[in-house]
Amino acid sequence: TPSPAARAATAAPASPAREAPGAPSILRPVVAAAEPAPATAEPAPPPAAAEAAAPGTRDVIVVHGNDTVASGEIARFLRKAEFNAIILHQQGDEARTDIERLERHSGAGFAVVLLPPEEESAPKPGFRRPRARQAVTAELFYFVGKLGRARVCALTTNENEEPAVTGLSYAHYDPYEGWQKVLLKALEDAGYKLDWAKALR
Fold first, then answer.
1. Across all residues in the chain, what is the average pLDDT?
2. Residue 186: CB partners within 8 Å, gap ≥ 6?
3. 140 touches 165 (CB < 8 A)
4. pLDDT tens across 36-62, in order?
């Protein structure tokens, strides 16, 4: 039979071992609180395409060579469609150079470039081909670069003339309304609201 002292020692719980101050803990696991991972920023939405944005102005530049009759007809048609037609070569009084004239009116929302065959090119000896003036072709490229090709429509009076640049609206200017429909479609694709019935009336 165990003695009373032995029974007391068996019943008493063992006291935990004390660690020396400053000693590393080997008895208690240290659980470090996991820091939350930094939130990942959501990718920014892609910028809207220029073609999809509605233009902020109804100013339309009309560029032409020496054919003032056709340019006047184009301007009248644009005004009937409720656009502010600006014939570029009538705006040269306040500008000293061609580039300054282009820069003064580069804030327009759309450009119509008339390319009448007023010069001749010679791609090979003995063969000459009519073409638009090089200055007008340069203005075409200027507005394609400034406004984007979706906001430029080129018209030619020579049915057999090849486009000066591909990838934009191009139509043959004739006495019928075919070119008008091409121009209205280009304006509509650029984001303008149109009344086709009123414009073609």
1. 73
2. 110, 150, 153, 169
3. yes
4. 555 555 554 443 333 434 567 899 999
